[in-house]
Amino acid sequence: MEDWAEIRRLHRAEGIPIKEIARKLGVARNTVRTALRSDQVPQYERAPGGRVVDPYEPTIRALLAEYPTMPATVIAERINWPYTMNPLRVRLRQIRPEYAGVDPVDRVHYEPGEIAQCDLWFPETRIPVAPGQDRILPVLVMTLGFSRFMLALMLPSRLGGDLLSGMWTLISTIGRVPKTLVWDRESAIGGTGRVTAPAAAFAGTLATRITLAPPRDPEFKGMVERANGYLETSFLPGRAFASPQDFNQQLSEWLTRANTRTVRSLRARPVDLVEQDYQAMIPLPPVEPPIGLNNRIRLARDYYVRVDTCDYSVDPRMIGRFVDVTASPAEVVVFCDGQVVARHRRSWAKQEVVTDPAHVTLAAQLRRDLAAGRHRRQAERAGRQHADGHVVALRALPDYDALFGVDFTAPPTTRVNDQ
User: Domain ends where: 283, 308, 327?
Assistant: First the structure.
C-alpha cells in the first residue's frame, strides 16, 4: 500500500517518469504502470480454500429447510459428521439465518397517554425485613410511553394482590390512568397467556386494558427494560438500605432527579412532557379498584390467619366464624360481619408470627371462663335439689337392670334344631 501511494505521488505530483520511479523504488516498470492505472487501494486477497463442511452442506441445507431450529449435535448425527464440532457450528451460524427467517422490529411512536409499560425488577441488594432476616424483594417499575416518565415501588411479594396494589399506588401518583398497561407473562397478571381474573377486574374498574407481551420477547416492552437497567446501574450502586420503607424513600428521591434528565431519543426531559401524557389519560375512577390480598376463611381454634407466609392473630371470640382477610403492602385487616376484629402492620418477612397482646389476654380469659363454666355445670349435676331443698337421689344403672329383669352378664343361649 505504501509503494502504491508513493508511485502515484511521484508520477502525478512531481512528474517523475515511470522508468525513473521503477529505478528509485526498485520495482518493475509494469508494477509502476499497474499502480498508476488502479484508483483503488490494493488489497491482498487469498483464494478461498476448501472447507471440511463443504461436501456435507447440501444435506445440511436440506435438514435446515425442514427443521430450521435443529440443534448442531442432531445435525452432526444425521450427516455422520466425522470431525470436531467447531467447523460445523461455524458454518451453521452462517447459513441458519437463511432458513430461520428474519423478524425485524420497527421504531414505535407513542401518542400522549396511550401506554405505560410495567415490569418487575429484582435488585440484588438484600433488604432487612425482620431481626436476623433479609430478603431480595421485587420492585414494580412503570414507564410512560410518550414522556418516558419513570415510577417505581418496592413490594412485599409478586402475588397478584400486591402487584395490583403497587400499580394502583403508581397510577394514583400520576393522577390519571394510561389507556393501555403492557405486561409480560408475569404469572399473577397473565402467566397462561390470558389476563387473570383479578387483573381483568382491576383494568375494568380503571376503564383501561392490559396487553400481554409475546412469550420470550423482551423487546416488546423495551422502554421499561431499559429503565430496569438504568436503575441497576445508576440508582443501586453504593447504597445501603435499612428497611423496605427506606428503600422506597431513597428511590422516590432519586426518581425525582432521574426524571429531569434529557432523553436522547426525545431531546427533552420526561418531567417536561409528563403533563401532555396526563392530559390525554383517563380520569381516575370514582371508586377504588379491587386490590390487595383477599381471603375468606373460618377462624380456627388457634385464632390466627395466614397472609403470604406470615400468621396474624385475630380476636379469639370469632373462633368458628367466617372472617374476611384483606392485606395491602402496609397493613392486614380482618373483618367479621363488617366489623374489624384485627388490624396489624404487614410483615414483609417470611414465616413470621404477628400477635396482638390483647388477643392473647382475651384468649386466656375465654379459657378461664370456659373452665369455670364446666366446673359449675359439674357441680350442678352433682348437687341437684328438689324444690323443698332435699338432694335428688341418683341411682346406679345396675339398679334399673335389676328392676326390669335384664342380665347382661348371662351367657347367650343357642337353640339347636333337631336333625
Answer: 283
Mean pLDDT by 10 residues, the chain (419 residues): 83 85 87 82 73 91 92 94 93 90 75 95 94 94 96 96 96 95 94 93 95 86 93 94 96 96 91 95 94 95 94 96 96 95 96 95 94 81 67 72 75 54
Single-letter code of the amino acid located at 68: P
Question: Going by C-beta distance under 8 Å and a sequence separation of 6 or more, which residues neighbour residue 313?
Answer: 303, 304, 342, 344, 354, 355, 356, 359, 360
Structural domain of 382: 292-390
Using alpha carbons only, what angle is made at residue 83 by residues 82 and 85, rounded to the nearest 5 degrees? 120
Largest CA distance in the chain: 155
Rg of the chain's alpha carbons, rounded to an integer?
41
Cα 331 to the chain's mean position, in Å? Answer: 22
The one-character DSSP state at 266 is T
CA 367 distance to own-chain centroid:
45
* Cell reading at 222: 423495551
Q: Is residue 49 part of a domain?
A: no
Q: Which residues pair with 212 in a beta bridge?
A: 183
Helix, strand, coil % (nearest 5) of the chain?
Answer: 40, 20, 40
